[in-house]
Amino acid sequence: MNKLKIALRGSIFFGFFILCMYPSVTFSQVTFTDVAESANVNNNSPGLGAAWADYDNDGYLDLYVSNYGDTNILYKNNGDGTFTDISEDAGVDDDGNGAGIAWGDCDNDGYLDLYLVNDVGAGYGAENLLYKNNGDGTFTDIAGTAGVTSVGYGLCASWIDYDGDGLLDFYLTNNVHTIFCYGQSNKLYRNRGGNLFEDVTESAGVNEPGNGMGVSWCDYDNDGDQDLMVINFASPYLDSPEDNPSVLYRNNGDGTFTDVSSIAGINHLDGGHSGIWGDYDNDGDMDLFITNNSTTISQSPPISTSGKNVLYRNNNDGTFSDVTDAAGLNDTATSIEATWIDYDNDGDLDLHVVNGGIQRDEASNLYQNNGDGTFIDVAAIAGIQNTGKGEGATWGDYDNDGDMDLYAVNYKETNRLYRNNGNDNHWIIIKTVGTTDNKAGIGARVEITTDSGSQIREVDGGSGFCSQDSLWVHFGLGSNASITTLNITWPNGKIQTLTDLESDQTIEITEE
User: Fold this and answer.
1) How wide is the angle at C-alpha 488 spanned by C-alphas 483 and 491, nearest 5°?
2) Closest to 128 measured CA to CA, from 89, 90, 102, 161
3) 56-83 pLDDT per residue, tens
4) Around Cβ 318, how many Cβ atoms within 10 Å?
5) 347, 454 in Cβ contact below 8 A?
6) Residues in CB range of 179: below 8 A, 6 or more apart
7) Are 53 and 62 in contact (CB under 8 A)?
8) From CA 483, how far away is CA 46, in angstroms rounded?
9) What is the pLDDT of residues 3-23, one digit of tens each?
10) In 3D, which of 33, 444, 423 has the Cα closest to residue 226?
11) Radius of gyration of the chain (CA)
């Protein structure tokens, strides 16, 4: 009881201190409640990733969790706040070394398929899997016939239609883990249709054999095609860690890419894990946040990697500026996963960072966007300061109430489902449905305009580290009860416009 009193007093003092320092920021509006146990999703396996997706098209987000060396789990959303483990019945109960998860409709049949990355771990050759959604609640692994089994120290995958042909391609990162003498280049698989893929890594110019960790796609230069960010980990195991910088590939629009990292000013050489895109300052271009893993490897003598997380602000001229310190995001924890998310529905993107990894117990961060280019960590006040060996996180509105909820994945510790308790701000959620484009609308850019200004999002086929957020596009609207205009720029360049939309609804928009 004394320890509880001390903890409560500490939280109250911290909240009072923050309110005095930042009187214009309201912290009492949004809190979270951990409902993992009552929802039946409190797994405590060696978790690495998780991803929300409505795999059965019933209007509720379901949840897939990858476990390293243990059975992966597919939780079906029952629509009443609870979930049921249907992994075995659905045929997705693989027990290899589950890592990265990416949902995408690769055959355009209207049902989301699942690519699961298995890494070889300590000498175990687990193949990657491509689960085709059969549309009846079951899945079939077609990785072998599709040509995407790729055995390696794989970690992350992300879907995108990089060549604009209406079919989802994907990029896979492989980590050079020299202790076990593994290592191979990352892979870019082009979708040829008919559930067949071809490896175009070399011809596309994205075959650098780095130390691949996170991967993310985004049209950072606003030219209408998707560019590629690959986060490399400057591992102390490598002879020359400085020779493995992260890479920004600009899409040339002809099936090839050019490394523009130096030109763009992204010279990242630290222990990178994930890179995520989001327009945090609402200026119409996508900014980049990179997490760094500060860790020490136990050996004699000890070797370590270190480095603060980095926020690169897009200058809208093909270059970026490091604004980390000015933004207040220069943390040096063991950061793994990150997500841009408007958790308080106030109209600007906040930032969630998972810390810990398999070696440490550390508290995660929830950085509230102050609206002036700076952020402040409110995780403790919000009740979302997950402390443990954090590995992954996925955000989505699982209870369909208009605010974003969080599933946090911990390694050999209990996972958490943080239900967002909400506030009075308005919101809208968009479900994109492609016709000539890929069915899930991955890569489409959505822009809304209200009386308060404009915001942009892109339908994300997987970013960060091993996890994936919901494909449903969420906007917080603050006090705005309506949207003046909504523009969707589909991957093929077609622009679709809707006007005078009411807030506080989830709408499905089909490509015309």
Assistant:
1) 165
2) 102
3) 999 999 999 999 989 999 999 999 999 9
4) 15
5) no
6) 237
7) yes
8) 43
9) 333 333 344 344 444 444 443
10) 444
11) 21
